[in-house]
Amino acid sequence: MDLSKVNNIFFIGIGGIGMSALARYFKAQGKTISGYDRTCSELTKQLTKEGMSIFYEDDSDKIAKDIDLAIYTPAVPLDLNIFKEIAKRSIPLRKRADILGTITRGKEMIAIAGTHGKTTTSAILAHMFYQSAIGCTALIGGISNNYQTNFFSKGDGIFIVEADEYDRSLLFLHPTAAAINSMDADHLDIYGVEQSLQETYNEFANQIDKKGFLILHKGLESHIFTDVKILTVSIDNSHANYFADNIRIENGYYHFDLFMPDGVITNLVFGGHGAINVLNAVTASAIALNYGIDKGVIRDALENFSGVRRRFDFKIRTKEFALIDDYAHHPKEIESALLSVKELYPKKKITAIFQPHLYSRTRDFAEGFAKTLNIADEIILLDIYPARENPIAGISSSLIAEKITKEEVQIVSKEHLIEKLIDQAPEIVVMLGAGDIDRLAEPVENALRKFWNYNNDKPYQKELK
User: Fold this and answer.
1) Cβ 464 vs Cβ 319: under 8 Å
2) Distance CA 171, CA 196 (A)
3) CB 343 within 8 A of CB 254
4) In this structure, are residues 273 and 337 in contact, taking their beta carbons and an 8 Å threshold?
5) φ and ψ at 160, to 5 degrees?
6) Cα gap 376→424, rounded to integer Å
7) Which structural domains are found in the chain, ordered by start?
8) How do 136-144 and 158-163 pair as beta strands?
9) pLDDT tens column, 172-192
10) 388 falls in which pLDDT band (50, 70, 90)?
11) Is 324 helix (H, G, I), strand (E, B) or coil?
12) Percent of the chain predicted with pLDDT > 90
């Protein structure tokens, strides 16, 4: 499809984080953008302020008459009246991943893949390129706290995008260089078995330009078979090509030395949070170094990187209390988040609030969820967020609760969450999940500020001192 001839684009599910980034990209190209989403959110409100027309009812009459392309996300049910109207009018309909592949085809493009860490790694890398003379066009799967958006662009630089494994979307991409952060089993409703997921990552690896390179977390190279040059990264294995050593926490920041094939960069300060994000920082640094970005730029970008919304995102942070909002919705992600919290607050009581995402994922990983949630001292489970799925008989949050060995576990409705949370006299609260739990973050924050008698709105860096 020749996108240069397209003027009016309609997004079905425009409030999705990947869809909104693409909508912003096309808006920057001078296209007229409109869309539908099931619910109004802070993100859709912001898109409206940016000049996009959005409606929230499945009303085909609200689709503009001059639409010449419709883009959809697989997360949206296909039985909407809107889809019937698109077909009736013979409007070209394309999947988001297909369009992302089209706009990046033939361009210099770095794609970040993996079951975990895509968004943070992409955000760090894009921040490095944006601060460099190279520049970039970044479409990431979260809101960068540095730029307050999921799309930003400077010059005619390299595209930096996420390669999403859901629905095998990553296979629409043909990158110049790429990274695969992890290949843990997920989306088994799509893949069936873990081997099928690994085969898809192998196919993706073989779509990388043969003159380019692939960054892998150390250990994954035994699962990837490609002629593309492979470089490995690690935070605990000095046999990797790039690895962090001497990792420590000083004044609330991670400090580390980055070892490279040709030397070492000492005492890097990382503005992000969580040990897992140090590994993401190493991955981004390895890519940037291979593109010739100056070490000074990398050092500065790492230090002033302020994170991604809902990725180990501190809403309140003091020496005594903290509220952290995190997108973690897979057992491995929850484990990484909670272990990082324990590292920061080893003597504090940790309360985890978890909203399971999808009935199928809850069914497939109930035992894993229970095991990792046991890291917390107290666990509050919300009901499952169904997203695109219909209920599955016998599958509920109780399935996880029954497998948790801690006595301090309860299933709570969203309406009673704050009441139950305050009853526990919390100290460190971690909100986890990929559904609509993020909409509870602000009321929880307000309630905790009142309970802790804490009203200081200074940035957390100052709060810690």
Assistant:
1) yes
2) 13
3) no
4) no
5) -125, 120
6) 13
7) 7-95 (3.40.50.720), 105-304 (3.40.1190.10), 313-464 (3.90.190.20)
8) parallel
9) 999 999 999 987 756 556 666
10) confident
11) strand
12) 76
